[in-house]
Design brief:
This protein is an alpha/beta fold. The protein has a single domain, classed as Rossmann fold, CATH 3.40.50.720. It has ten helices and eight strands. The protein has an eight-stranded mixed beta sheet, sandwiched between helices. Strand 5 and strand 6 form a beta hairpin. Helix 4 packs parallel to helix 5 and helix 4 crosses helix 9. The longest helix is centred in the C-terminal third of the chain and has 20 residues. The structure holds zinc ion. Zinc ion binds next to helix 7.
Length: 252
């Protein structure tokens, strides 16, 4: 790291759990952010600011007016632009020292390979069962750790999945597809902006912790946040032996 980097990341380097070596690990890390919406906005901002050196962003959406209430990575001037393009521009204006690769596409079980090349960690910022299930399948079949987050109205939840530690996966928590009708009704229920910020911040912290091996990850349990009640809760989740995502893959 040069003088400018040492100064920019000084407050990280001062943390004994991170230090200069941890900051170098962040600089040399590669993460793939799937979805550049509400969660992606927060996570990408923090990880770019933190100096995570190589960031891949996968999203095929366009910035719309109703996004700006919570997707704070985007500005009024970004309306109508592709989210990946606006995200790259705004993140590089925050930190020009990092590399950002963008993919204007949807992440699927069929097309994922180029998005996870050299990737140390996947981050799920999507908002539907199909995508979340597909991302978890890819993480477990390719043996890449995954930070998962989910949101609904005033509530959110977070969990870290690590195939190398034989942890639970998305399928252990949600074995059944709730169906498109249920998801469409959820997307019309609204969402409070700051809950997105809370969950996105927790996910960013888990990414930094995981990459630098600091502390212990939120694993094999879900941490939930209820904004209306002002409460955090933890729920232990057991690995499901018949899980379609992690157990069957592990047996092969
Ligand atoms: Zn599982």
């Amino acid at each position: 790291m040069d003088k400018i980097e040492l100064n920019r990341y000084k407050r990280h380097i001062l943390l004994k759990e991170i230090g200069g070596s941890g900051q170098n690990i962040l600089k040399n890390s590669c993460i793939t952010m799937i979805g550049a919406g509400g969660l992606g906005s927060i996570i990408l901002y923090y990880l770019a600011a933190a100096g995570v050196g190589n960031i891949k962003i996968v999203d095929n959406d366009v910035v719309s007016l109703s996004n700006l209430q919570r997707q704070i990575l985007f500005k009024n001037e970004d309306l109508g632009k592709k989210k990946v393009l606006a995200a790259k521009k705004n993140l590089l204006s925050l930190n020009p020292l990092i590399n950002i690769e963008i993919y204007d596409n949807k992440f699927t079980e069929k097309n994922y390979r180029k998005y996870i090349n050299d990737c140390n960690l996947l981050i799920d910022g999507t908002d539907n069962f199909k995508s979340k299930s597909a991302i978890s399948k890819v993480a477990f079949s390719e043996c890449i750790p995954l930070v998962y987050g989910g949101l609904s109205q005033w509530e959110g939840q977070i969990c870290v999945f690590d195939p190398k530690s034989d942890s639970i996966c998305f399928g252990c928590i949600f074995p059944n597809d709730p169906g498109q009708e249920f998801e469409e009704s959820c997307s019309n229920l609204g969402i409070i902006g700051p809950t997105v910020g809370v969950i996105g911040s927790l996910m960013s912290a888990e990414v930094i912790k995981f990459l630098t091996s600091s502390g212990k990850p939120i694993m094999n349990k879900i941490l939930t946040y209820d904004c209306l009640q002002g409460e955090f809760q933890e729920f232990c989740v057991d690995k499901v032996q018949s899980c379609k995502i992690c157990s069957e893959l592990n047996k092969n």
